[in-house]
Amino acid sequence: MAFKVGLSSDLSNGAGGFSWGNIAIEELSPLTWEFLNPTGANFQADIVRGFDAIAFTGPGVIADSFPAPEESPLIIARFGVGYDNIDLDACTRAGTALTITPDGSKKPVATAALMMVLSTMHRLVAKDSLARAGGWDQRLHGLGQGLNGKTVATIGLGNIATEFFRLIAPFDCERIACDPWKSQEEATQHGVTLYSLDEVMKRADVVVVMATLTPETRHMIGAAQLQSMKSNAIIVNISRGPIIDESALIKVLTEGAIAGAGLDVFEVEPAAKENPLLALDNVIVTPHNIAWTDELAYNMGRSAFHSIKAISRGEIPTYVVNKDVLTTPQFLTKLEKLK
Hints:
7-stranded parallel beta sheet; 2 domains; single chain
């Protein structure tokens, strides 16, 4: 029986190609694939029914996203590392493994983080606007800051954060981080010293949020943490908007209590046009696409398709999120049929 692979409709450019450009589709060979019908915000049972594997970017998973386990995919392979819009219990009940692509995202996202840090510190957008407005006589206003010698912190010390620290090695920065899941021994391997969240926020000149959004991390950076930051400090968020209390962030930025922010994500997306963050000249914003490059598209596709290929051979992929599914009868029955 043929192994049936579907690609979510948001991967299609509507003309037979891919919205993300080159996504390494050749890595699926000799498996064949087809685009799913338009999915909407969440997967729907009638759309995923009968597919063995699905590669996707945007759609979420809710309780009713899957049909009966025997008609549900063995795997849904997400382009990216976040999965806060995916009900893992629903996947497990359906006998469906969720995989992500940390190996494909690491370098492009870390590079994007560095770019956002430098752009925010150097006030790139404000200087761009000044040049376009002919304000050459105001060039000394808002000089910006250099990264050399600064104390740089990440919230989270996973693959992307450690790659980010590797990239900033030439800047001779002090490296600190907050990650309760890491030991100091692990952090030392990357030249990083671990501190509590409150201590990190007080010490750092640069804070880069790279944590996963969970109930525990929602608004983990609130008014107290933001108000404790140095007046010259900046904060960059390339993870998920709700990790920072946005109203508290607006307050410290408006009052000039911190120097600036670089934001790829917001509490509510798309961000409303009336959002005060969009009007501040000490804030750089992007529409949750800061790392979207040809490199990211290719690497994420390659990783996702490798996971699909592995499971098509009856093997367990590397980056399964809901590992509990691997021992369930509904998953094992479907996997056994492939062997």
